[in-house]
Amino acid sequence: AQKVTQAQTEISVVEKEDVTLDCVYETRDTTYYLFWYKQPPSGELVFLIRRNSFDEQNEISGRYSWNFQKSTSSFNFTITASQVVDSAVYFCAIRGGADGLTFGKGTHLIIQP
Amino acid sequence: GAVVSQHPSWVICKSGTSVKIECRSLDFQATTMFWYRQFPKQSLMLMATSNEGSKATYEQGVEKDKFLINHASLTLSTLTVTSAHPEDSSFYICSPKRGDRVGGYTFGSGTRLTVV
Fold this sequence. Notes:
By secondary structure, chain A is an all-beta fold.
């Protein structure tokens, strides 16, 4: 069984601040994939990133960056210079084998102007 | 690529009626379809997995007779909520898997079901 823990239920910051969303996972699979999705109020899931278990290289995409550390089973997500449009619920998820995704409970991010 | 169409986007139905949700992969063939359910302010939970031409596999606690899944073609899968009750009110999202690709999955835009 796999498990994803997003300990931060809600985070509120002022615009332009940096914010990090934590994600800790559990799996017995040696090969697995980690994901981050954004879910705005409309409900649609917006894919942000996929990382496989063999690639621990950190990634940066614009204001977004991800820190994958197998030693601590963490896949944290940082938004630099946050904007109001970043307000949403963010889900971390894991997939191993041929199964569907196992999602964390999500972090509700509120960016205040 | 990877365009997914899910309909309807929202539906309100009376208790006891059935509702059908359609999920289409418009520009690829989906050998596997995942259906998720999301209750308000909660996470997404996998309900079932279906492979084209086969019976769906349901997660523990999901009633297969209530949630009928049909995956008759590589581009269309349907989820029918039978004899719906208020506790079935939820956000349902489909996720087709492209062929033998591993990793990233695309998602439909979701269907918000309200049973009154």
